[in-house]
Design goal:
4 helices, 49% helix, globular, 98 residues, 3-stranded antiparallel β-sheet, 3 strands, alpha+beta
Amino acid sequence: MSRVRRDRLEIVYDILSSCIKGEKAGWLMLKSRLSYYALKKYLKILTENRLIRIEKTDGDKICTTTPKGKELIQKIHEIYDASGLTFYSATSRGASEE
């Protein structure tokens, strides 16, 4: 099985889609298949752009996708559907939804 490297847009999609209902940062690292340092970098960018919000509760960091982030998820789907490109996502396991 060949390993396909995801691009930044696919990584952003993985993070945003994993956080829709709220997700602990530790689980998010596993779901999005990122190292601690890579996830930290992406979370900083996504929070600065108001695509996710991070709330601290009982010592845990809970990441939740904002309405702006949900809108971006939809736009990512539209881009891949219109282009016919293959979408590699850790959360969707393969090609873009038809």
